[in-house]
Amino acid sequence: MRLKNLLTFLTVLAVLLVSCASEDENIVNPPPGSVNVGLRFFNGVPDGVARRLLLERNIQTLPVNSGAMSSVVAAPSDSSLLEVVAGTTTELLTADRQRFSRNSIYTVVAMADSATGQSFDTVLLFPSTAILGTVPLAQVRLINAVPSPDLRYDVRIGCPSGPSLPGSSVSFRNSSLYREVPPGVNVFTIVEESPTGTTILGTYECDLAARRPYSFLFFRRTSNAETSIALYDEGDSTENLERPLTTVSERTSLMRVLNVGSTPVSVVNTSTTQTLVQDLAPRRLTQYISLPTCERTTPDVFESQFSDGREAFDSTSLNVRDRYTLITCDTGSNAQIIIVPPTPLVYGAEGASKVRVVHAAARAGSVVVSVGARNDPTAPNGYSPGSTLARDLTFDNTSGVVLLPPGPLPLTVTSSSTPTTIRAIGSSSIEAGRSYLIIVADRDGGGIDLLVVEDSEENKPATPIDDAVFARVVNASVASDVVPASLGNVVTDGKLFIGNSFATVIPQGSTSISIGGATSTVDAIQGLRILAIRADGGGQPNVITVRTAPLETIRGSSQRRVVNATADVPFISINYDSISVDPAIDEIFVTRVAFGETTVPDRIDRERRGSFYVFDSDTRKELYRLPISFGPLGNSYTLVVMGRKETGYSVLVLQEY
Q1: Residue 168 and residue 1: Cα distance in Å, rounded?
Q2: Are residues 279 and 261 in the same domain?
Q3: How far apart are CA 625 and CA 628, in angstroms?
Q4: Residues 189, 260 within the same domain
């Protein structure tokens, strides 16, 4: 018994030792509050006197001259009194201790009073912390240490007419919040605002690193000097944290013009009187044209004039070295300009294509633009099931960027309103590492054209992509859980589970279909829809191919049809609400639908409750029961009856478009 107790004690002791060994060291022995806390000192008093920052425990910076920044010193603890010393004279000693947050570097700025502009007055602390976001962006802010109550400073992104980095100009003794900007070379314009007006101090470029905080610091080195501007990398703890600001000498941007209107058009930049193009024919794209930028604080205004006299105006802030597309289009009796901004930076785009959608079809209303199922070797089933590129996009708007794998580009344009109708179907292709605009435009004579324009294309006809055919592939076989599936070159190595399907777009002409070892070839004809169903009727793999005109989509009315894709029921019937003993009194929906047969669509104009009874036409044995109201009026459906005796039967409800 004693031995048993000893073993128990040793076991408990071992568990305790292991538990202690696995404790979080930061919990058992928490680090001091000063861990990863640093302070640097900027002497913003323009009087020529060197100063230093003194903390508790005699921690201090080296003396720094007016307009200079010290290196970082470690905080003595999680709080400290702050003392500013000039020579041996204490100019300021804070009455209260300043508390610090971990993983932060504080920039302590000594500032002059605004009355004389040169006498030391106060200190302000501006913290910066490590950037922990998942997106590798830089962060930039503005600090105004110029001792003048009448001067405010702003940093514009790009040219003087660009958006304000802080949101609005910043007054003396204030700073802005950080704003995220892409890493790499950025262009900024420095603007000074005074009671007498706005002055452009310069347009500069700088190289920013990802996940680093930066500050534009405005100050004066002497009381009567011009304002100085420094860009500091606050992630650098040395005194060499200033980063170069290089004046931008070549201030131009590029713009091309695309005319999707019905008549020739001329375009002028009215801000500079520069003519971009004269009498550009419909469906024509110009070369990129060089435009001067950064010459004014107001946006550039563009005017288009069609040959029949219709005019349109639009404006934008052009940025240095960026490329723009100006689209001219019709709005019935009026004209319209759509200025498409440069393709924004998107992270994780390596090996992908960048795609945006531009709505330039005034008669189309709000639309949804989607890409159908297509090859995707990274997907578990070998294809992407399709995705929305732009939802509820209205005229004169451009969508955000969507990344797509390169390859075939099966496109559909549908109405945003219900019932959903397909407005256009097209097929194109895209390449890796390129950026594309998908332009939805009105077609002469009615309908919609789709144009796919790559960012580097210029000086060429803008030809709409070919009309294509909507197709759906369904696995109604229960022979195995998953089968291989392919459809032309759009999906070449896909996998379909039981009861699953994919919808996509295929070019007009002959297209091969392979599903689970069964093959077929279909002739895709414009205006028709294709439904390919893998089934096992008669014990043999089959592809049931249905090629018909689209079912109607009319508000308040629906069409429905039935396909027999069962493995062992030669004929199926469907009744409303029951299978009666006397077939003569059956309320029939469809009767004796043979394997592989598709019924003629019926039409309903009112909602009805109850159930569809699916049964074997010969034995009158019930196979499946389906609620009648499986979808709202306005949408149309195909009911695919599938299964076999051993596994049971079911009905796939496919909405038609």
Answers
A1: 81
A2: yes
A3: 9
A4: no
Rounded to two decimals, what is the model's pTM?
A: 0.85
- Rg of the chain over Cα atoms, rounded to whole angstroms, equals 35
The pLDDT of residue 538 is above 80: no
The DSSP secondary structure of 445-494, one letter per residue, reads TSSEEEEEEETT--SEE-PPPEEEEEEEEEE---SSSEEEEEETTTEEEE
Maximal CA-CA distance, the chain: 113
Q: Within this chain, do residues 219 and 272 fall inside the same structural domain, yes or no?
A: no
Question: What confidence category does residue 289 fall into, taking pLDDT thresholds of 50, 70 and 90?
Answer: very high
> Both 78 and 226 in a single domain?
yes
Output the six-digit token pair for 413.
Answer: 């344009």
- Which residues lie below 8 Å from residue 25, measured CB to CB, with a gap of 6+? none
- Residue 479, Ramachandran bin (φ over 0: left; ψ between -120 and 50: alpha; else beta): alpha
Is residue 502 included in any domain, yes or no? no
Residues 126 and 263 reside in one and the same domain = no
Q: What is the band of 394 on the pLDDT scale with cuts at 50, 70, 90?
A: very high
Take residue 256 and report the two structure tokens written for it: 């091309």
Q: Residue 432: pLDDT above 80?
A: yes
The number of domains in the chain is: 5
What does the pLDDT average to over 348-352? 89
CB 395 within 8 Å of CB 375 = no
pLDDT at 32: 52
Q: Tell me which residue range forms the domain holding 393.
A: 353-464
Task: Mark whether 321 and 382 lie in a shared domain.
Answer: no
Here the tokens at position 491 are 């999906």
pLDDT at 401 over 90: yes
More confident residue, 422 or 12: 422
Q: Write out the two tokens for 117.
A: 């502009």
What's the rounded Cα separation, in Å, for the pair 165 and 185? 16
pLDDT in tens, 217-261: 999 998 788 999 999 999 999 999 999 999 998 899 999 999 999
| CA 129/CA 234 separation, integer angstroms | 9
- Residue 639 sits in a domain whose CATH number is 2.60.40
pLDDT of 373-393, one tens digit each?
Answer: 999 988 999 999 889 999 999
Residue 11's H or E segment, with its range, is helix 2-21
Nearest to 402 by CA among 418, 388, 412, 383: 388
Whether residues 68 and 168 fall in one domain: yes
Three-state secondary structure of 221-284: CCCCCCCEEEEEECCCCCCCCEECCEECCCCEEEEEEEECCCCCEEEEECCCCEEEEEEECCCE
Evaluate if residue 533 carries a pLDDT over 70.
yes
Q: What percent of the chain has a predicted confidence (pLDDT) above 70?
A: 95
